[in-house]
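Closing statement on the adenosine-3'-5'-diphosphate sub-project.
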Amino acid sequence: MILKNNNPNMSSSDDDQEKTRKQHAQLIKELPKTGGWFQPDMFLYQGQWLIPNVILGATLMQNHFKHRSADIFLSSFMKTGTTWLKSLMFSIINRSRFDFSDHPLLHQGPQSCFPVFDAYISQDHAITNMDNLPSPRLFASHLAYSLFPSTYKDPSSGCKFVYVCRDPKDVFVSKFHFMKNVRPKELPVLSINEAFELFCEGLSEYGPYWDHVLGFWKASLESPNKILFLRYEEMKRVPEVYVKKLAEFMGVPISAEEEENGVVEKIVELCSFEHLKNLQVNKTGVLQIGSIIAVNNHHFFRRGEVGDWHNHLTKEMGAKIDQITQDKFNGSGLTL
Ligand code: A3P
């Protein structure tokens, strides 16, 4: 079943949204299904493996959410550095509003800075609440580029995407550890070997990983002013350069005076892994994702390193992922 796209550029009434919610139950029944990593089942929706609540979020977005030209989506596959980018984008755009020594990031943590779009949108009144947010609005999403309606992608629409990707070997290791922590105890244990095979086959939430990356990569080549394509490893190497790139892309370039005053370094320090990991809010706080998932903030801060896969995967496993990456990205011009 394909849900009818009424008018993706218009927020619609509660009644219309209610119809989409009702159709969702039927849609789920018709989709291909397999075991999930942190829920019993996940479903293949328009080429991406998603849990039911996120499919509802995607259909609500596709049918009812009204985007604005000033919107910026932070898009990523899970475990590629979303938390870091959230912190950076929030502190860059709000840098003249908040004092670095008494910054909301210090008290609320990165997760509360702006909505996890895919899960939040399915909550009651979320679309209205998001309609009421002032511009520019920031949203974090793990949805594939192909799931966004064409009106979002049209060069004339103005709305932008920041995309961050990461070496899939580190993504797998990070995701495996994260899922081990959040997987309900009622589900059978997922071993690293089982998870590895599933990941390689593309069978993990928001997967296949390579399709996710390629979707945004190709779009960034076509519309570089609309999609900023970033690599976690490069950002770790020279974060200052990327703070400036992000600021420029988001339409709030760092001025010469700000640079002289050390604003770039202050943002890098505020959002650094060590700093964020040790904040009380990130040690004890809880992120409520949608109405059904609650995750302790500390699970979003593990090692924050490049190449941690060496500590968890054999050389053969590493070579297998590299081969898949090479095959999938062949001819795209993308290397990781
Ligand atoms: P590891 O598990 O390899 O440590 P996401 O935010 O997309 O869920 O990604 C989580 C990954 O980013 C984790 O990787 C986490 O430790 C790392 N991370 C979190 N905050 C970071 C930061 N400020 N700088 C660099 N990496 C960070």
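The chain has one domain: 38-329. With this model delivered, the sub-project is considered complete and its resources will be redirected to Aim 3.
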